[in-house]
Amino acid sequence: MTSEAAGSRQPKDYPGWARAVRKDRLPSRKEEHLKGIEEFFDHYSADVEAWRRRNSGYHRAIASLARFYVPGGARVLEVGSGTGDLLAALEPRRGVGIDISGEMVRLAGAKYPALEFHRMAAEDLDLGDEKFDYIVLSDLAGFLYDIHQVFERLRSVSHSQTRVIINWYSLLWQPVLYLAERLGLKYPQPIVNWTTKEDLTNLLYLADFEVVQSRPHILLPKHIPVVSTLVNRFLAPLPIIRAFCVTNWLVARPMRLEPERPASVSVICPCRNEAGNIQQIADRLPAMGSHTELIFVEGHSKDNTLEECRRVAANSAGKDIQVLVQEGRGKGDAVRLGYSKAAGDILMILDADISVAPEDLVDFYEALASHKGDFINGCRLVYSMDPQAMRFLNLLGNKFFALLLSKLMGQPIKDSLCGTKVLWRKTYVELAAGRPYFGDFDPFGDFDLLFGAAKLNLKITEIPIRYRQRTYGSTNINRFADGSLLLRMCAKAAAKLFFIG
Fold first, then answer.
1. What is the per-residue burial (b if ≥16 Cβ within 10 Å, else e) of 386-423?
2. Angle at the Cα of 174 from the Cα atoms of 66 and 63, rounded to 5 degrees
3. What is the per-residue pLDDT across 147-160, written as a single tens digit (0 to 9) for each?
4. 385 CB-contact burial (10 Å; exposed 0-12 / middle 13-18 / buried 19+)
5. Mean pLDDT of 457-473
């Protein structure tokens, strides 16, 4: 079911108009509504290709945005798949579309034989036990009889990491579209629902889905060479202006699932010039899940950190400790090396300065294992901290970058630079596979992981921790040189996460 802008023929020319597109009476029952919608789109199928070509700019914009939210090679279900063009544009490994219109399903099957299409109302969705990575509802919400029921049905085709991608027309455009119909400039449609972001967020919550992020897109739906790209990519995301966008987009994930089985944990501890902290880390690290391993990654220390790591590993009976030595430079490189050798289901980062207590990692484990988030980020800015733990300019810089990243990523982040970050191994594999989208730009590793999490539509949850002053060694951070680098990384995020289209 697609809501194409369409032609000049008047309602009297349409068989089934009285049932499918009447404006003077709403259907009294679900069956009557679905029958009318089916007849409407069956008849519209004869003209759909012509009007898609006429409005090709709008459809290209929708496809481009959908590809941003849905990576290629995923298992994708499109509900209301129409002629299958959007589903095909996503290049799924496994692509299934359902549509209430038998004629639309016939057209889609002929155009895209490698994909699978079923004639089925969204309210009656039933695909057995099959689960999908992404479920797309594009320009569909307006035609549904029972949105809550449809969202409930989506549970049956979702697994714990499924993402639901929804786009729909903005309520602000209702008078414009209604006027276009009255003037014969737009294809006449049934009485449609005009939902807000708050409406859909609430209905998703009632069906046990949680909204991860929502954004408006497409300020200029008509294609004008160069102008459309500039307006839709660079003006549409800006404050105030974005309120006038044609479409709203929303990403949601399942919630309230059964807890995961006890998971194994790998704690990655990059350490450079931290010899005085190594024994404490090994002694204080709590046992988590079914098994906990500790991986020290030594990074060209000038003290005896490497020797101390090896000594502690050899003398910690009953503990699983590995010692790795970096060939490259920087914390980001150390973390990636540790991840590549880790065996745990859950991957954690613990800074060797012990400014975050090893004991606090239990809270991170419980948050991830209970599905409170897909990416758990430490936050040092809730509780009081040691007076010397974070210098004033560092604190201001952290708050600035957190605010900036929140806007760019579409999710609230209070502490972007806390080194303690936790995610599932399977999630990291996906994140690493998508790293070429941003490039190798982050020597610290914090922004690399946060940007990747945002691109994968992960729910980022922050755990407040108490930030302590280091008791051994000195910081490896240069606030001015590193601050300049962080600004350049934010510019990269703006180009890849914010100004899209």
1. eeebbeeebeebbeebbebbebbbbbebbbbbbbbbbb
2. 15
3. 999 999 999 999 99
4. middle
5. 82
How far is CA 67 from its chain centroid?
A: 12
The DSSP bridge partners found for residue 184 are none
Q: What is the DSSP string of 140-195?
A: -GGG-S-HHHHHHHHGGGEEEEEEEEEEEE-GGGHHHHHHHHHTT-S---------
User: Rounded distance, CA 401 to CA 403, Å?
Assistant: 5
CATH topology assigned to domain 11-254: Rossmann fold (3.40.50)
Looking at the chain, which residues constitute the CATH 3.40.50.150 domain(s)? 11-254
Q: How far apart are CA 128 and CA 16, in angstroms?
A: 33
Q: Where are the CATH 3.90.550.10 domain residues in the chain?
A: 264-498
Which amino acid makes up residue 434?
A: G
Strands across the sheet containing 346-349? 320-325, 291-298, 264-271, 346-349, 421-424, 375-379, 460-464
| Among 441, 443, 457, residue whose Cα is nearest residue 497 | 457
CATH homologous superfamily, domain 264-498: Spore Coat Polysaccharide Biosynthesis Protein SpsA; Chain A (3.90.550.10)
Phi/psi of residue 202, nearest 5 degrees: -65, -45
Q: What confidence tens digit (pLDDT) does each residue in 227-265 have?
A: 999 999 999 999 999 999 999 999 999 987 665 678 999
Asked whether 121 and 149 are in contact (CB, 8 A), the reply is no
Q: Sheet containing 75-79: give its strands across.
A: 116-119, 94-99, 75-79, 132-138, 158-169, 247-254, 209-217
The pLDDT, as a whole number, for residue 25 is 63
pTM, whole model, 2 decimals? 0.86
Model confidence at 126: pLDDT above 80: yes
State how far the Cα of 311 lies from the Cα of 279, in Å rounded to an integer: 9
pLDDT in tens, 396-446: 777 888 888 888 888 888 988 888 999 999 999 999 999 899 888 777 788
DSSP character string of 391-454 = -HHHHHHHHHHHHHHHHHHTS--S-TT-S-EEEEHHHHHHHHHTGGGT-S--SSSHHHHHHHHH
- R_g (Cα) of the chain, nearest Å: 26
> Do residues 344 and 429 make contact, with C-beta atoms less than 8 angstroms apart?
no
Structure tokens, 89: 């544009």
Report whether pLDDT(4) > 80.
no
